[in-house]
Every structure is written in C-alpha cells, then in structure tokens.
Amino acid sequence: MKKSIYIMALGAFGIITTEFGIIGIMPAIAKHFNVSIDTAGWLLSGFALTIALTGPFGVLLTSRFNRKWMMSLVLFTFVLSNILSAVAPNFTVLMIARILPAFLHPVFWAVATVAASKQVEPKDAPKAVSVVLAGLSIATVLGVPLTTYVAELINWQAAFIVSGVINLIAFAALAAFVPSMPVTEKQSIKSQLVILRKGQMWVNLVATMIMIAGIFATYSYLAEYLGKISRMNGTQISIMLLLFGATGIAGNWVTGLALSKNVLLTTRFFLLSLIGVHILAYVFGGLFIPMTAIVGIWGFIHTGGFLIGQTRSTSEAPEAPELAASLMVSFGNAGVTLGTFLGGIVITQFGIHQVIWISILLLLVALALTYVFVKKREQVSEPATASANDIVEEDVIPEESFLGV
What we know:
3% strand; 18 helices; globular; 405 residues; two-stranded antiparallel ribbon; mainly alpha
C-alpha cells in the first residue's frame, strides 16, 4: 500500500476520535450541564444528522478543488471545533461547536476512500479502503478510550483538547507528506447526478442506513450500558472500549479480505453475527466476566459495518464514486441519528437494558433488504430504431436471477 493511504487513515483516525469520542464522555457531559442522557445523545446524533442532510451537496460543490487541500481544510475545521467544544459555557454552544465540522466531514470520507481505491488494482480496492477505514477502528482503540480516560482523570474539557491535538497532528501529516491531488477530470454536476437513477444503489443505501441505525442504537450508549447493567466504573469502561476497538482492528481487516471474495455473503454473515452478539449482551450483560468477552467479540464484528456499506454503495456507481461515497456517508450518518434517537427513546421508556432489542429489530430489517435486488433491463428495440437513449427500466427480481451484488 502507498504511504498516502496510511496518512489518509491517520486523518480518518482524527475525525472519528472527534465524532465518536463523545460516546465515552457523554455521561460526564450530561451530568455537567444537567441534561438527560438522551438529550446529551444529540451531540452525536445532531452531528450525524448534519452530515446526512448536507453531505452530497458538499461533495458536489467541492468536486473541482484539489483533493489534498480539501482534506486538509476538513481536518483543520475539526481542530477548531474541538477547541470551541472545550471552552463551551453551556450545552447550546457545545452543540453548535460539534455541528460546525459536520458540514465538511463527508468530503474527507468521499475523497479519501475513493483516492485509496484508485491507487490499487480494482480487485484490491476493498483492502485499500479497509486501510483508510482502519483509522476508524484505531480511533475506537485509542481515540475513544483515551478521551474517556482523560475525562475520568481530568475532565471532559480536557478530552476535547486531546481530540483537537490528534486532528492537528493528522492535519500536519497530510499537508506535509501527501502529494497534491488536482482534479484532472472535472465532471459536471449533471453527469454525476446520473447515478441517482440506479435503483440498486438506493436499496443498498437504505439497507446501510438501517444497518448503521441498528449498530448505533446500542453502541451510542455503550458506556451507559456498561455502567448501569454491567456495573463497571469509569476506568473499567475505558478498558472495555479499548478492548472493543482493539478487536475491531482485526475485524476490519478480516472484513476487507472477506469482501474481496464475496460481498453479499459477507454482508449477511456480518448481520447475523451482530444480531447474535447483541443477544449475548442482553442475556449476560449483568455478569462482569462474560461481558468482557462479549465486548471483545462485539468490537471484532462492529467495525465491518462501515466497510460493508462503503463497498456495496460505491460498487453500484463507478461513474461518480465520490458522490456515491458521500451518499453512503449521508445515509450512514442518518443511520447514526436514527439509531441514537430510537435508542434514547427506548432507554427513556423502558430502561437501558432493553435498548438491545431495537438494535436487533433494525438489524433484522437490514438483513431482509439483502434479499431485495433491482436489475437494469434495457427495452428491447429493433436495430433500426434503437439508440443510446433507449428507455431503461428497473425491476425487482428474485435473488436466483441476480448475478451481481
């Protein structure tokens, strides 16, 4: 793999440390500002909702700018966001500071994942993307537990400062060592929007959204779950999050290899495995030792979801891969918002232990959607009247007649 791919992974590490680092310190922030845990959850879901609503527009509007400097701008914005978050005098200011970098967040992911896939052979594209997404796994290994530990050791403001420093290092490395990436083939917005006609892409995007919602309905409140159900203290929760992320690195790598062999089978196996581990967490959540093993297995499975969503979405739109990637980021973050919101409702109404069931329900729906296929079928025409503008119809077809993913 080329050096620039690993540097982009470092940038992903910085972004995810900021986005998901809030998970571990959410209870402390809720207590400091005297808000409920589901209200504090909007620090994550509000961030994700902003991405979901603005992502594709940001990618389209910046599609003609040098890709290196766009990624650098994104990371610098995250540095500023963390500084503002650390000095926020109230919850409203903190929410605003959190949302600001979300407008540019999809630009980094769309550019980095597409750039990585283009630097290797097509068959190795999932592996290259998995390297960039490994930054996500490493952020859960080091970034999220680190911010949780810093909040426990000092305070939650210090946790934001740590996130800011991580993003600053990533920004400096990208600016200094990644070569310029000018856009040589400038596509018009209209030519990119053609992919919006692809029915299978929309099915995959919706499936991704529901899958991510299922993942985050419980994961967003994992620190709270481990504290209330497993009766772990702050230090123990930090260790559990470290374990969760450590196994996630291996899981991300394995998922990348599996996707290179069979995308659909890997997707279904992932969903079934994740449903299984949620059931285990519900049954054994109150037992300390079994829960430590379950957290390790959970982390191994968990991180594959992002790579699966990325692969299934972009493979359907080779004409405009960055727009497809940004749509995946938007739908994925819509899933984060939906999952966090639904999880918060379940916690408020039924308690933290029951949040597991909303995740299982959503994951079952996502599994069902892997059996829905839309295949393009050109209208049959006589040779004399056929043209490049022939109408293209899309039909839902059974799996037996579908040859691709």
